[in-house]
Amino acid sequence: MDKETRLGLYETMVLSRSFEEAILRDYHADKKPNWDIGAGLIPGEMHLSAGQEPVAAGVCAHLSADDAVTATHRPHHFAIAHGMDLKLLAAEIYGRETGLGKGRGGHMHLFDPSIHFSCSGIIAEGYPPALGQAFAFKYQGINSVVIAVTGEGAANQGAFHESLNLAALWKLPVVFIIEDNDWAISVPRDASTSIRSNAVRATGYGIRGVRIQDNSVEGVWDASRTAIEKARAGEGPSLIEVHTVRLWGHFEGDAQAYRDDLESLIDPIAAYANQLETDGILTHELVQHIAEESKNRVDEAIEFAKSSPLPSPEDVEKYVFA
C-alpha cells in the first residue's frame, strides 16, 4: 500500500469518528431524565459505530458511487466511507426536512440512491436486497458490485443463509461483510453460535470466506480488494468476517453491565495513528490537521441540519404510500 492510500484510510476513520462524537453530544444534550427518545435535538434511538471504522474504511476504499452498500442499524461509518453527503446525513439524523428521507426515517433508515446506499434496523435485512441489486447489475451488464453488511449475530438468521446460497448459485457480484464485535446486542458470540468464526460458513455454500483479526484496516483493505476484484470479474461472491470492536454501547443509554472487556478495548484509530507515525507517514502536526479538517466538515454539516426546517405536522402522510 502506498502512503496516500494509508493516509486516506486514516482520514476516513477520523471523519467517521468526528461525526459520531458530534451527534453523540447533541443526542444527550436535551434528553429528559426519563430518557424519552422522542425528545431533544435528535429523536429516536441511536446506534453508533465507534471502533468499527476500519471495516468501512477498508472496504469502501475500493468502491465508487456506482457500487452499492446495504448496511446495518449501525450504519454511519459505511455511509460516510461510501461518500454520503454529510449535510444530508446530518439533516436526516436531526429529523429535518432537508434530510435524505425528509427527516422521517432517522439514522437506522438511511437511503441514498445517488450512491446506492441503504440500511435497516431489521437484523440481516440488508442481505436479500443486496442480492436484488447484484442481480440487477449482472442482468444489465453493469460492472458494479454490492457490499452487504451485517453483524455476527445476524449470521444465525435464515436470511443470511438463504442469501449466501442464492448468491453462490447465481454467481452474483456481491461481497458479504460480517462485523464481529463480540456482542450481538448483549449476548456473547460463544453463547449463541456453535462455531468460532462465521467465515467457515461460506465454505458450505461454495464461497470463499476469510476472517480478519485485530480490527486491521489494512487487512480489511487487502481482503476486500481481492473479493471485489473477483466479483467484478464475474467470479461470484465472497465473504469477509472482521473481528472488530464496539467501543460504545449497543445503543445510547446502554449501561453495558453485561460487559467485562471495557478496560481492555483498543481504539483502532489511535492504534493506526501510532502505526503510521512509526512508519514515518503521519506526524503529530498532520494528526492535528486531519482532526481539525474533519471537525470543520462535521460542524458545517450539523449547522446545516440545525438550521433546516422540521417537517410540518400537516405533512405527516405526505410520503406514506400503501
Keywords:
322 residues, alpha/beta, Rossmann fold, six-stranded parallel sheet, two-stranded antiparallel ribbon, 9 helices, 8 strands, 39% helix, globular
TL;DR?
With 322 residues, this protein is α/β, with parallel strands linked by helices. It has helices at 3-29, 53-60, 76-81, 86-93, 127-140, 158-170, 217-232, 268-278, 284-306, and strands at 68-71, 117-119, 146-151, 174-180, 183-184, 187-188, 208-212, 238-243.
Protein architecture, described:
With 322 residues, the chain is of the alpha/beta class. It has a single domain, classed as Rossmann fold, CATH 3.40.50.970. The chain is built from nine helices and eight strands. It has helices spanning 3-29, 53-60, 76-81, 86-93, 127-140, 158-170, 217-232, 268-278, 284-306; strands at residues 68-71, 117-119, 146-151, 174-180, 183-184, 187-188, 208-212, 238-243. The strands form two sheets. It has a six-stranded parallel beta sheet, with helices on both faces. A two-stranded antiparallel sheet has the order 5-6. A hairpin with a 2-residue loop joins strand 5 (183-184) and strand 6. The mean pLDDT is 94.
